[in-house]
Amino acid sequence: MCCQTPESPKREESESKANHKRNLSSGTSDASPMRRSKRQKSSINLKELSSPEVSEAEGEVTSPPVKEEAVYAPAPVAVPNRKAKKPPVKKEATGDADSAKPVKKARKSKKDQEAEAMPLAARAQGLRMFIGAHVSAAKGVFNSIHNSHNIGGNAFALFLKSQRKWDNPALLDDHRDQFRQLCAEKGYDASKHILPHGSYLVNLAQSDTAKSKQAYASFLDDLRRCEALGISLYNFHPGSTNQTPLPEALARLASTLTQAITETTTVIPVLETMCGHGNTIGGVLSDFRDLLALIPKEHHSRIGICVDTCHSFAAGYDLASPEGFKAFLAEFDELIGIQFLKALHLNDSKAPRGSKRDLHANIGTGFLGLRAFHNVMNEPRFEGLPMVLETPIDRVPEKSTSDEDAGDGIEVEGEKKKGAKKGPKRPAGAGAATVQDPGVWAREIKLLESLIGMDPEGEEFKALEARLEEEGRAERAKYQDQYERKLEAVEKKKAKGHAKPRGQKNLMDMMKGDAKKE
Ligand SMILES: [Zn+2]
Ligand SMILES: [Zn+2]
């Protein structure tokens, strides 16, 4: 029933452990803290970074030396309402491409105009790490560029079309041209630092012929959109076995991927690591090794992997400790090859390691903690890769709703609530009136950038770490409790001699593995 791989993550970890030290000593300059480029040392007020509410309320801004413009915009811009009609992006800035159909707009106040002209955060220059967020592409893909620029992102993700609908209008030539023009204007290299996210509906490992055809058509359409936009990397979920044997599912995935590669010319499909829940493919790194073995070698340069820190941690990998992080990368290199690593999704985890729950937390507030992101930001092998935040920015006033799967559920605005049927993922705060605050991402980007070269044993880091840890304390306790109760229930069932419920076998194996590890 449960089609997990025969090997659990733990077993693989221990299998490859013997080689970790060897690999690391040759592969990574592990002992040497990353050199900072001359402009990258930031003097950002850490209190503001770690405490969004505080900085908003204070509304005051410290200008780091890396800035070319003011750092944070005044509060009114920082808290746009998702429901507001007006997109957060200005057409004026895009040139005259849309002049064919002029739209009458309400006249803006001088104050509004000033606020709009000022980004929430300026983009850091000269860093080796390219950090950004999964921003909205509502009302046209080109708007994503404004949205990323607005939060100081040097990389970003977007949906190329609605991620929860099969039928989508074609990419307009005008939107394509504006996208390309804005990339050039704003200095985004689409071939390197823009990482669209695929549809949640697409399962390329699908066994049903009709559904498989539909999934493939949507996938190929996205890849072609990438090529039209000059984008080289395209992130998508490996899919689900749908309770068929894993090798068969991997064979179907390999076959459709191979076909997609042959039907396109430059775009690199990038498979995302998953949290290993149920029949999901990609929880364990060996899934990617096995998949690659089924794809002709000549296409390997057109395949990539994106590590989602929350997913891989929830799948059981220790990305929190420096040793665990190194071991993970060594295993990645050994099983897959580090050259396949093309991108990262940076998310903390609300749920504990091994919980197999996809619950993204804000950086430093979850079970990964700030140390995990210090590992990431100081890893030389990640230089130049797009790193994308998918952390929660939806704020539900008053009572919160269930936020299971919230992190990855970033929506094309306007599509959200209408299409909120049960799919592989649900939008953050679905059904509740939420307010989006991209200022959270602006601060998280600056926070991550400030970790480059920071001494993890120093006062600055310790204070920041403690503050964020405190911020997430209640939420971590909540999910820790849920996890423990789940494990108890599993134990009880086992004791009663019941068959193990689906997906629990590995969960228990993993716990045993955890105990064995540090
Ligand atoms: Zn992700
Ligand atoms: Zn994803």
Automatic annotation (TrEMBL):
Amino acid composition bias (Basic and acidic residues), ranges on this chain: 8-18, 89-101
PANTHER family cross-referenced by the UniProt entry: APURINIC-APYRIMIDINIC ENDONUCLEASE, ENDONUCLEASE IV ENDODEOXYRIBONUCLEASE IV
Domain Xylose isomerase-like TIM barrel: 149-404
Segments for region (Disordered): 1-117, 395-435, 490-518
Protein name: Apurinic-apyrimidinic endonuclease 1
Lineage: Eukaryota, Fungi, Dikarya, Ascomycota, Pezizomycotina
Cofactor(s) named in the record: Zn(2+)
Compositionally skewed regions (Low complexity) per UniProt: 71-80
Basic residues bias: start-end ranges: 493-503
Highest taxon in the source lineage: Eukaryota
Pfam families: AP_endonuc_2
Alphabetized InterPro entries for the sequence: AP_endonuc_2 (IPR001719), AP_endonuc_F2_Zn_BS (IPR018246), Xyl_isomerase-like_sf (IPR036237), Xyl_isomerase-like_TIM-brl (IPR013022)
GO biological process: base-excision repair
HAMAP family, per the entry: Nfo
Single GO term (MF): phosphoric diester hydrolase activity
Protein family membership: Belongs to the AP endonuclease 2 family.
One GO cellular component, as annotated: nucleus
Xref: SMART domains: AP2Ec
Keywords from the named record: DNA damage, DNA repair, Hydrolase, Metal-binding, Zinc
NCBIfam families from the UniProt entry: nfo (TIGR00587)
Bias (Acidic residues) ranges: 403-412
